[in-house]
Structure formats: C-alpha cells, structure tokens
Amino acid sequence: MSDAPAPQLTHDPERRREIAHLGPIELYTPVLEQSRDFFVRVMGLREVHRDEQSIYLHTWDDYQSWTIRLVQREHAGMGRTYLRAASPQARERLIETIEATGLGLGRVTDVRGLGEVYLFTDPDGHEMGLYWDVEWYQADDEDRPALKNQAAAYPGRGANLRRLDHVNFLTADVPGTSAFLRDVLGARCTEQIVKDDHVTPAAIWYSVGNKSYDLVYTEDWTGTRGRLHHVAFATDTREEILRAADVCLEAGVHIETGPHKHAIQQTFFLYVWEPGGNRIEICNAGARLILAPDWKTISWTKEERAKGQAWGLKTIDTFHTHGTPVLPANL
Amino acid sequence: MSDAPAPQLTHDPERRREIAHLGPIELYTPVLEQSRDFFVRVMGLREVHRDEQSIYLHTWDDYQSWTIRLVQREHAGMGRTYLRAASPQARERLIETIEATGLGLGRVTDVRGLGEVYLFTDPDGHEMGLYWDVEWYQADDEDRPALKNQAAAYPGRGANLRRLDHVNFLTADVPGTSAFLRDVLGARCTEQIVKDDHVTPAAIWYSVGNKSYDLVYTEDWTGTRGRLHHVAFATDTREEILRAADVCLEAGVHIETGPHKHAIQQTFFLYVWEPGGNRIEICNAGARLILAPDWKTISWTKEERAKGQAWGLKTIDTFHTHGTPVLPANL
Amino acid sequence: MSDAPAPQLTHDPERRREIAHLGPIELYTPVLEQSRDFFVRVMGLREVHRDEQSIYLHTWDDYQSWTIRLVQREHAGMGRTYLRAASPQARERLIETIEATGLGLGRVTDVRGLGEVYLFTDPDGHEMGLYWDVEWYQADDEDRPALKNQAAAYPGRGANLRRLDHVNFLTADVPGTSAFLRDVLGARCTEQIVKDDHVTPAAIWYSVGNKSYDLVYTEDWTGTRGRLHHVAFATDTREEILRAADVCLEAGVHIETGPHKHAIQQTFFLYVWEPGGNRIEICNAGARLILAPDWKTISWTKEERAKGQAWGLKTIDTFHTHGTPVLPANL
Amino acid sequence: MSDAPAPQLTHDPERRREIAHLGPIELYTPVLEQSRDFFVRVMGLREVHRDEQSIYLHTWDDYQSWTIRLVQREHAGMGRTYLRAASPQARERLIETIEATGLGLGRVTDVRGLGEVYLFTDPDGHEMGLYWDVEWYQADDEDRPALKNQAAAYPGRGANLRRLDHVNFLTADVPGTSAFLRDVLGARCTEQIVKDDHVTPAAIWYSVGNKSYDLVYTEDWTGTRGRLHHVAFATDTREEILRAADVCLEAGVHIETGPHKHAIQQTFFLYVWEPGGNRIEICNAGARLILAPDWKTISWTKEERAKGQAWGLKTIDTFHTHGTPVLPANL
C-alpha cells in the first residue's frame, strides 16, 4: 500500500457553474398521512397542495412553491431529485452534455410548479430532473411573513426546518458517479473518503455553489444500485438541532444517531427515520461556506475515520446498512 | 448628598426560608380569547381548564396543575399572586406574622387546584394568597412527556415558555413594601436601585430561594398604588428568547423592547404586550443562581443606570409609564 | 421480583436545609502543571494562588476565593469536598448530628480562604469539610468584572466554566450513603436508579437547595470504597457545551462521551479526562430547578436505562469502570 | 410622488460570476498596537506577520494567508479592499471591463501573500485590488486544527471571529456605484433602500455568490466621498454574538448598538468601535443564502424603515453620522 496522499480531484475554476441548486425532491412512503404528519407537525413544514396519491410540502425559507412531494408507494424510497439550472442557456448546455452520455430520458411538462423538466439518471440509476422555469412561493394569510425578504412566516412549530440542504445517495459505483458529477454536471468535489489505496473514492461530497456540499454518494455495502441514504434539511444553528432532538423524543420519532458533529464537512447532525422508513438528517449547513474557487478536495482515509465522528462518537451499525430505494416515477 | 455607599439590606441566614416559590397567578384581560390565543399559540402554554369567566393555562415545566388563570375583566391588570409555603408549619407561622400586620384578609377554599389559601395584601395593596396543599399536574395522552422527570411534554410551539419566573409590581411605596418582604415574608433582597441619597430604595429584587429573584417592586412614577409592571416567564437560553422575538414578530405581537441584557440581575429579556395590555417578560432565569446564604445586596445608583442596560441600550419611555392595575378578585 | 414501584424517598419539608451549597473541592493529579494548564487554558478558570504542592483555581461566577485546589500526588483522585453550612448555627447543629454517627474527624483551621472546618467522612470514606466563615473573591485589575453583581470578569477563554456544579462519587454502599445524606445531612433525593427489586438504590442524586442535584453516589462495580466518578462544572447553555467539545478537540483533550443529554436529571453533558486522569463533566445546570418543597423522588429502573441516554446514545464501557480514588489529605 | 414599486434591479443569470469573494482588506488606525490588541485578544484573530508600519491578522476559517492588515496612520479609515477573481481568465476579463471605465490604476506585485494585483477605484473613490494567485494559510504548531478541513484551530478566545463577511462603504453617489457594481463588476443587488420616489436607491446590498451580500454602499449624509461605514466579520450563530457583546463589555470596547436583528437582510448584528475608531460589525452570516439565480431585488421604503429594526429597535444617531475615510495606500 502506498503512503501517497490521495490525488486532488482537480476542477477548472473557469468552467461555468451550470447548476444553481438542489430541489425540490420526491419521497416515497407506504404511510402517506403519517409521513405528512411527521413533516408538518414535528418538522415544521407546511402542506401546500395534495392530489390523489401525493402531498406537497414547503419549508419556510424556500423561494419555490414546494420543497418535497410525498408520494404513496408500497415501499419507502426516493423519487426524482430536481436540479435548477443556473440560467436557461445553462440548462440547454447541460442537456446537450447529458444527452451525449446516453443517460437522458427526455423532457416532461407535467411537474407541479416547474416548467419543462429534462429527465435523466446518474450512472447508478437515481432519477433526476433539470429545470429553469419555476413558480415562486406565494404566502397566503396564514403564513405571510413579517419581513418581505422571506418566503413564508417562521412557523414556530417543532423543528422549524428552514430548507432542503442535500441528498445523500447510496451507489454501487462511487468512481463512476463521481466522474459523472464532475465531468457531466460540472459540480466540484469538496471532500471524499478514499479506500486503502488512498486513491479510489468510497464516498464523495459534491458542491454546485458556495454551500460546502449538495449531493453526496456513499458506497452501498450491499452492492445494490440506486438507493437513498438520507435526505437532509437545514436549520440555522446547532442549538436548533438539539431542540429538534427533544421534539423528536416527545413525538416518538426514531432517533438513529446524534446529535453529534461529523469530522467530514463538520456538519452538526441528527438522523431520524420518518414513519415511512426513510432516513432524514437535520443539519446546520450554511455557517461553513466554500469561498475558494480553487478549493482543494479534502481526502479522508479509513484510519482517520476509525477515530469516530468529530468528538469521538462511533458510527452505529444501521448507518452502514439501512437505505431506501430510489425508484423511477413510472414504476 | 452623601458619597456613602448604600447600606446593606442585611438578613439573618439563620432565619428560615418559609416560602417555597411564586405561583400560580391571575391575569385580567378585556379580550379573554385573544389573550388565551397569545399564551397558547404564541407562547406555547396549554389550556387545561375553562369556566364561564376564565381560562387556566399551564407551562410545561410546572409541577402544579395550572400556572396562570386568565380572567375576563373590563380592564387589563393582575389578580392574585399565589405563594407556596415551604411546609404546612411554615404556612401557619407566616399567617401568624401577617395577621399581626393587619394586612390579612382571611382564608378561602375555593381556588382551583389549591387547598386552603390565606389571603392578604402587601402594604401597596397587591393581593396575595398563601397555600400549602396543591394538586400536581397530570399529563394526558396529548402532552405526556417522554421523560418522567418532566411535568408535561415539551410543546415545540412558539416561544415554548418553561415556567413562571417572577412578578414585577409597581408601588407607590418602595421602602414600605421592602420592609414587608424582608420582615414579614422573610425574603432576601439580592439587588436594589437606590435614590440620590444612596440609601432610599427605588426598586427592589427579592428572592425566596436560589433563584436570584422572585418578586420585584419598582417605584410607580405616577404615584398610583397597586399596579403591575410585568409578569415574567422563563426559557432556558438566550437563543430561545431571540427565537421568541421572531415568533412575536410573525404573530404581530407588540414588542416593547429587547431582546437585550439588564445590568441588574443580568437577566436577558424581551418585553411584549399581550393582547389585553399587560406587559409580559420572557427571560432566561436559572443560569445565575444565588448560592451564598449571606449574599450582600447589590445597590445600583442613578449614575450607574444612566449608562443604559448591560450593552448600552437606553431604556424606552413606555417602560417607565405603562402599567396595569392589580385588582382584588371581588371587585 | 416484585412489580411494585420503588418506594418514595420521603423527606420532611419542615426539616431545615442546613447546607447552603457544595464547594470548594480538592483534586489530586500526578501532573500538576498539565492539569493546571487544562483548567486554566482550556476550561477558562483562573489561577489565584499556588504553594509548594498545590495550585488554587477560581471559576468566574464563584463568590468564594477559590473553586478547586489541584494537589500534586502520585495518583489522580479527589481530596476533600467542602460544604458550606446555611448559617453558623446550622453548622453547629450538623456537627452535633455527625458526631453522633462516629464519622467525625475533628476541626481544623488551616484551610486557605475558609474559617474553621469540621472534617468528617461519609460511610464510604470520602472526606468532607463543613464550614461557615469564608473569604469572598476579590477581583483584581486583570479580572475585574464590568457588572458589579458578578464575582470576576467573564474570561472569554476556552470553555468558560461558570462554577462548580456537583460531585459524583463511586461507592461500595449506595443504601448506606443514601441514608447518611438523608438522615444526617438532611439533603433531598430528587432522582435515583433502582435495582431489579425496584427498591434498592444503585445510584442516588441528592440536592441541598433548588438545584436539582449537588451530590451523586453511583455503585462502584469494582466494589472499591471511596472513589470518584467525576466532578462537574456548569456552563449556562447547551451551545456552550458544544463549543467546549470543539475547544477540547483542538486542545487534544480526551473526550470520553458526549455531548448528549441524560434522561436522568435531563443534564446535557460532556465528559472529558483531565491530564491527571480524573473525569470532568461539563454540564448545563440551572435551567431545570426543583421548586417543589415536596418533590417526589423519581426512580429509574434497569429497563428504562437500557434505552440509552435521552436521545438513545448507548453508555460506553469506560463510564462504568473508570474512577479515581478519593484519598484523605494526610495520606 | 408615485406609488409605483421600485423597479427590479434585473440581472442576467447567464452572465458569469467573475468575482469569487471579498477579502483580504486593509484598515488604518492611529493606535496600531491597541487595534491589534482588540482584534487578537478580544475578537480572536491571530497575528501572522508584522512589518515596520503594519500588522497582518488571520481569522481561523480563512483559507488565505491573512484576513486584515492593520496599518499605522494618522487617522482611522480603510485602505484597499481586495477581491479574488473566480478564475485567472475571469480576472483578465474584469480588468478589460474596468479599464474601459477609466477607473483603473494599474498592476502591482508587492502585496503580501497575493500574486499580481490590478488596482482600481469605484466611482466614489474607494480603492480596490483584483487578484487570482494567493498564498494559502499554513497553520503552525500553535494553531494546527484538529480537523483537516479547517484552515486553523478554533481559537477559543474572545469573540472567535470566523471570517471576513462584508464591507459597508459610505458613498456620495449611490446610483453611480450601483451601476458600477452591476455593469462593471457583475455583482447582483439582493436588497436596497429606495428614496421617496420609490426608484432612486439610497443604500444597496450586492452579492457575488450565494452569500446574501458582500459589498454594501450607503448614502453618506455628509456628502463626503470615499468613506467607510463598517467592516463586518462572521460568527456562526446569534448566541456567539451575544457572547461577543459580553466579551466587549468586559474588555471596555465601545458598543455602539445591538445585538439586534436588521429587517434588511435579516442580519443579526453587533456594532462596536475598534480602538482606532473604525466601526466593526459582528454578524451571523451564512444561515440565509440566496440560492435563486434570478433572485428579485427586495426594495425597502422610508416608511418601512421607520418601523425600526426587525424587532423594533430605533436606529441610533451615530449610525448615520460616524464614518471613517477610505484612503489610497500611497497617501
């Protein structure tokens, strides 16, 4: 085994950032109303629309008309991850690049609150949609904010989740998805875990703007393709995550692990399972920003991870095994 | 004018502490349902009972069956302040002492959740009730706490007020009420504001246990007897008071001043007016405890107060003028 | 095995509270200067005096002249725990009661900053000292506080520990020490862990005032007498304990477990080992006060503890095995 | 006067973001060592270099080799504001655009830790420097961080300022500087204050990335050109700003106003004056991010500002009058 440090995942700072941000997303649940209750009553989201098979929810600091769509399905899992392009032209350039990979699925116009969406999958099979046109959130009398630079009123309810923060997928092929994120989507790898060879990535954290990450892929130890590890929502402070733990305790929500601080990305985290079975992270993103346009990817080795999380907490077993599938919408 | 420091308000540490704590209390409001909505929806209390003219509310960390009773009246103001004796015998000893002052009003047995209550007034006319027997809070299915060392579930709603903290009365006679608190009730003066003679108290902070204060009397500049300055409720941290300010902003509650930190007692405060017109303080009590049994009263002069609050905020005008009457229940 | 709940550890509310508070204390360390560095540089205490074999340290909110004395010894451990009586007369009454038990060791007058100290041990052999007269802390130019109701300036250094909070002893005889605390010292048991018979205490939390506990005794699984589990210091908020964890991480301090929240007493905790080997807890005491004079002891069973700490963290092994001896000063 | 809303300051989302971030900056002070002491001892920065007339300081989360340079001058004020380009090519494109305005001053290579710097002024005369090459911060034994994704160890000292956040200039010509920021530098106006005509900007907040603002210009009521209103540094949370207020109180630092929350940008703020006379803001930036690539500029009217800050605090007089000059380096 070589002692050489992991090679830098270099990127060209001159390359345009074509993706503005992550979201909205779709989550599947076998217990729709219970999952809705978890997100609305315990997490502080607001129900903004429902149709026969799904419920649309909104976090108070999201400028878009909805943040997650809960869909009734036989099994828990994830549906589409939508990505907003940085401009209409950026979207067309990205579509052209994705088309060349053969992973494109075509354009649809039936997604609530979004204009035309270009569908594709990553190499591991997670379905994604790229859009530009979007409906902005219109607060009504019940959630009109006191300050007009805010999408909706601060709910003062439960965990008061602010906005979607990131999605962490499980994948059978970390190197392949890493190449896709870098070469096709133009995202930037801010941190990674490398295997014993100090080169092969086992987990990758990719950023599309100044947030330190937006999309994460972790190796699926079960070898399954296309699964979800967790979806994460942001609060402002660590204190709010401690309060969220108390709120979950009172509500009987399964707390898997935390609150604690990851060494990687220094995220302060709390992992819970929503009633449908999907793992949800509550994290304090935002304070740590990546401002360097030529940020050097941080690589963590197996030895470094053996120390536990930042303050020494050992990672619990289910964290390495529990996942829920990401399934195409038309299944 | 003498340069001599204010004399110590000495107390005898050997004297028994006969009062266990403050509360519950009664508040009057001309808009009962609006005041109820403020306390339940914005402040996080729970309605536990209502009768024809009043509503009983409970804070989640109060071991007693109710914390405040809102009473429909023509004008805002305060009703009775109840004090729990430290033991049944302590209550009888206190009654004897109060009787000797001529301020006693007799015993009643019709107060919800309390056993026999001995009524009296302080020298300025604020009505009080002394009791020992009390009904403990029984959580039901809706607010059963996850941890059995807690009275009710953490509500996760609005300002999440934890418990009643203190009452601040206006009085036309600070020296007289000070003598009553010290000599009759046996409370201990932890801090005071003194006049230009450096001797005469203009405001007094009295404690009955380890909390740094429970009862406060401030000189009423209008010369009126028997008014209320504010009732205060505790949260755990300063951060929660900042959040309470956001919650009040969203709910359209009138924020009078704060959040800021008093130099006196170092209380981190937020003052709002409930819909009925009573001033309510949200404060972080608890972190600062008075453990010394021979604590030396801290005296603040006019010059020291001219510096503003701890971080320099100037006290606003209404803080010196706005008050609501404390009226006998049988008015 | 009976299903009956654990019997209430009743106390008589009329019984006087003869002890005002815990502290100061003595800690032994084989690496005096390293332990001093930990407490001063990382924890934020101040060195106020040193002699040939020991260093006296002060926490900024302690009204007394010192908070802990670090003593150079071959092995880590604890020396005397000092308790301040509630009044001079209370001290004499307590001495008489202790003398009757045969655990008295006599009076000494050579303790820095304290007047006459009456020495005794609890039934398990931990040495204690009871005093009334005490020297108050005199801030000098370097740590004069901006607000005169504070002992010393807020240091703005490391974990900024505010004051001593409690001592947790290991004991070979929980029932015996429990009877001593209750019957001899007059403290009140606020919570306990009971064995499978639901009666025999395995750990006890005793309070002398409104703090929910001051002295804790936990069964020593090794059967050794007279050991220390940990000494705890208070900060104001949970956020400060998270920051303390970061400060300890940067300083290379061994973090044993936490930050997390105990179900018992709801203490938010961080356990670290100071360089000498003693376990130190950083906790947020204060927010939760016991105001009921007739508080009913909360009993936790083995089954309840098997759920882990409040948010599910499993207790780590060293927490049950690591302890340091409490040794008489004249050893 | 028209009732028409302020026109949107539109920008083209397709236009490249050519500036990566703000900083480092230069501050002038007539009392160099006192200003250094303020930043190091009270604010938690680290001295990393000094030469005959200046001292270089570093905030712990800055990836660059220094964050501010304090320069000894007869009067307080600001020197250069450096801006890092998003790529080497972006820098050349920007230089070309600036040259065309006639505001260019030429290229220099003598700035510590930076490669070639292109100097220019904004239309109001504030001197700026555009660079790409930069020396990364190298932690030494004294401030090596425990986690390798962090520039330097968390200091655990004073206010623990994390990084430079923004600069707020006074200007005699808001519309002119606004046009320069938008048309020449390609920044995006996220919020503004408009005059009674609801069109003319009186203050503007411009962003270069996902932070909600980086450069602010406020109308100088004195009509003077080229002055500084304040320089702002970020902490993570509001709680840390409250603690910073306590730290400043203990250190005798002049607190001008706060802590409180601006309605504009929702910044939680504390304004203090460093010993040299420059106004310094401590703010919690980061939680609120602008993720929408087509964010619509928020316009605040005079009436809206008359309500005071977010929770009602009235703006104090000195906030409108106190400023310090921005002077060319070669004066």
Automatic annotation (TrEMBL), chains A, B, C, D:
Q: Which InterPro entries match?
A: Glyas_Bleomycin-R_OHBP_Dase (IPR029068), Glyas_Fos-R_dOase_dom (IPR004360), GlyoxalaseI/FosfomycinResist (IPR050383), VOC_core (IPR037523)
Q: Domain of life, per the record?
A: Bacteria
Domain VOC span(s) in chain numbering: 21-133, 163-285
Pfam families the record matches: Glyoxalase (PF00903)
**Which PANTHER family does the record match to this protein?**
GLYOXALASE FAMILY PROTEIN (PTHR21366), METAPYROCATECHASE (PTHR21366:SF19)
Q: What is this protein called?
A: Catechol 2,3-dioxygenase
